[in-house]
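During the no-cost extension, the postdoctoral fellow (Dr. R.K.) reprocessed legacy sequence entries with the updated structure-token encoder. One reprocessed record is reproduced below for audit purposes.
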Amino acid sequence: MRHTLVLVLLVSLATPVFAQADRDRRDGNWWMTLDGKTALKVIFALGLIDGIATGYNFTLSLDPTGTTPDPWKWYDARVQQFASHVTAGQLQVGLDDFYADYKNRSIRIPTAVYLVLNSIAGTPKANLDVMIEKARREAQQ
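Re-encoded structure tokens follow.
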């Protein structure tokens, strides 16, 4: 009887966790909750496309040592360093702050995401300033 009570208690405590996980899961069931919300679906799809470009920035950036590392290991290390502890809200505020500077408005979003994540991760300001200036120049070409 005692084991049954413990099992019932564990299941009842775990149920809200699984329910929350289901709400946060981005799958077909979640997609169908957006029925009639075409604008949200388009924005989500644009985010996926920008995510591909951001992945490119993470994977093919040169290692500061000047070598070209194994792309998968490099990508994993960079995601761990820059994105594993960042929330969507934090990124949104960072992008708002970044684009508040009119000189940054021509910088494409995937590049801005990369720069904001560097800022959040603690990249030294002097290095970040050089990166931003380079991004501004490239955005004008």
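The CA atoms of residues 94 and 116 lie 6 Å apart. The helical segments are 2-24, 28-33, 38-60, 71-82, 88-100, 109-121, 125-139. The remaining legacy entries will be reprocessed before the final report is submitted.
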